[in-house]
Write a structure and sequence with these properties.
This protein is mainly alpha-helical. It is built from eight helices and no strands.
């Protein structure tokens, strides 16, 4: 993920301003949510909000363009990393995604989708566990019914 300095330098080259205050605002949720922070301030509504908040300093249109550029730069990096993951997976090099999302959902869905053998063994393991529980219950019931005779 591009850091504040990378975003500011990129903005300086494109627009002639560093726009650090805008970049700090967009990435503030990173302290709490890490990689998932992009779900909070990386959308079209936030771009409009940035235009209203920072319009007096940069002009509404420039502030919105800086915010849009920030979001696009973040997504370009994500796309580049995903392309690399796909290439490594197709070559059999990397079987663990580089950046699992919250609660490991991306990691779980990756294995569930790409490794059918894990799905097969998980289903068999679940079935065997269920049979074991039934056997234990039956054994307990049988022993309790014979002990009362």
């Amino acid at each position: 993920m591009p850091d504040l300095e990378h975003h500011a330098e990129h903005t300086l080259k494109r627009f002639g301003f560093r726009g650090e205050d805008i970049h700090e605002f967009l990435d503030e949720p990173v302290r709490t949510f890490g990689f998932a922070h992009r779900e909070f301030r990386h959308d079209t509504e936030t771009i409009k909000l940035v235009g209203r908040m920072f319009g007096s300093e940069y002009g509404r249109e420039l502030a919105e363009n800086i915010a849009l550029d920030h979001i696009m730069l973040d997504h370009e990096e994500t796309i580049r990393k995903r392309k690399k993951d796909v290439q490594e997976i197709s070559l059999g090099i990397n079987f663990i995604p580089r950046s699992p999302q919250r609660n490991g959902r991306r990691l779980i869905s990756f294995y569930w989708k790409h490794l059918p053998a894990i799905k097969f063994f998980a289903l068999i393991g679940t079935g065997l566990f269920f049979l074991l529980v039934l056997w234990i219950i039956q054994t307990i019931l049988d022993s309790s019914s014979t002990s009362h005779l």
